[in-house]
Specification:
Layout: H1 2-9, H2 11-29, H3 31-144, H4 147-162
Length: about 160
């Protein structure tokens, strides 16, 4: 029994039992197939990572190419905007000038017609006032000197005769 105790207590015996159990477990679980599947999965992940890396590199180059064109495109956009703004500004100024000229012409014609109307009104009022003054003067003169009354009537008849009525 001593020999048995020595064997049970020795590490070698325990190690052999461990190896045996491990071999049985290895056959039952089929670690080889599991390792192959795991290896295939890892290889697939590595391939996917390589493809993703290659795609990222291509995308990076494309993005860098596009980014290198951005300053030129921005300059073109700014130049086009400046040209458009200049054209629009000129068009606005031309339209404003046309409107100002139209307003001046309209104002000139309104001032001219209003001036003519005022002149006509003043002439009419002046003529009426002159007639009124002449009438008053004639009436005063006829009242002051009745002999002119007869002469005035004769002169008026002579004037009417000239018209051959």
């Amino acid at each position: 029994m001593e020999f048995w105790n020595l064997i049970v207590q020795s590490n070698t015996f325990n190690f052999l039992i461990f190896i045996g159990l491990f071999a049985l477990l290895f056959k039952k679980i089929n670690f080889g197939a599991m390792m192959d599947k795991l290896q295939a999965k890892v290889m697939s992940l590595i391939e996917d990572a390589k493809k993703a890396k290659d795609n990222s590199i291509v995308e990076l180059k494309r993005t860098q190419e596009i980014s290198s064109k951005v300053p030129t495109e921005v300059r073109n956009i700014l130049d086009n905007a400046e040209v458009t703004a200049d054209r629009l500004g000129k068009r606005i100024l031309e339209e404003a000038e046309k409107q100002v000229n139209s307003i001046y012409k309209t104002t000139d014609s309104v001032v001219e017609s209003e001036g003519q109307r005022i002149i006509s009104n003043l002439s009419q009022k002046t003529a009426l006032a002159s007639l009124e003054l002449a009438k008053n003067h004639i009436v005063k003169t006829l009242k002051a000197k009745p002999q002119y009354h007869v002469k005035f009537i004769e002169d008026s008849i002579n004037e009417l005769d000239r018209f051959n009525i």
